[in-house]
Amino acid sequence: MAIIFINYRTGDESFAAVTLDDALSARFGAANVFRDSRSIPPGTDFEPVLWRNLARSSVLVVVIGPRWLTGTGNSNRLLEPGDFVRQEIAFALRIGLDIVPVLVGGTAMPAAADLPTEIQPLVTRQYRRVHARTAEADVRTLVDDLARTYGGEPPMSESQPPAGTVVLIDPDGRAGPPAALVERLLAQASISTGVVHHDGARLRVTCPGERDAIALITGLVPALDRELSSVPDAGPLRISMAHGDPATAMADARRLIGDSVLDSVLAATAAARLVLIVTDELHHLVIRPGHRLIDKSAYARVDLPGAAAAWVHVPGFAHPRGLPPQRPAPAPHNSVGRVTGDVAQVGDVAGDFVMGDKVAGSKINYGGGGAA
């Protein structure tokens, strides 16, 4: 699921940013929506948190009200190099994020001449508008638009346990990383919701939401690998990661951490400091979509006895070694999937088989029949 970063100016219709935050959080989950005053804990060095979260976002929502240029003063704040509204937009443009300006009330899109050169492309981005009298409907339309593009789901009922990610860190009989170190690395990766527990000789990290699953893979795992590189005779660590409701994720993480495939990989990769194994669900959710900080080609599929597939990764290696032979991928069957565009045949979608999944758009036929 997408991470949505809300950019706004304090003193410029801040209620609009809060209203958008509430509505987007209800649809995407609060962990997948970043608004600095809510998302950054008190006392935190906020600048690193801003840039880390913006770097792993999918879209920047820029709230523009009548005092967007000046805030509570009289001068154009955007002309100040240290202005954070300017810096966030410039950073988003540099890394190629989608940007959606949201104009509040009758506010006009700023003229390019009023903006620093580095953020002038903002004025050509398709905008949405939120009026005070129709705010509820306008915000709902905006959220629906973003959900269609970035995959937000309606909020779950309160009786349904929230999905989260469970990480197990097993030192394999050696002295593993202390809980305090893991907590520090979680903080460095801006995973403020992560909780570290002792699980026998292992450490267990639990995090709600999907955004932290991305941060665990892009932040915690590489950081642990770097820490181990400076400790003589440390490791190797076994790390398993699963996503889902708390009970299922815990069971899956424990099943993976003890699988013999990790023995094979570590035996064939003497220089490895850690090996990561993730569930197929987590791979589909976080790795397969192609996050900019994740090399999905470095994850290898393994078929576990009596269980769904899992995916193995060894940091520093282009491909895990020592994997057992895998079963061939199942052949497509006669069912109907969906794909962007007109009717297509199996294999026409980015070179991958489509197994009846919803991709978005018109229907696909399996076996060459007509469109249903």
From TrEMBL:
**Lineage top rank: taxon:** Bacteria
**Biological-process GO terms, alphabetical:** signal transduction
Start and end of every TIR domain? 1-146
Please state what the protein is called: TIR domain-containing protein
**Organism, per UniProt?**
Actinoplanes auranticolor
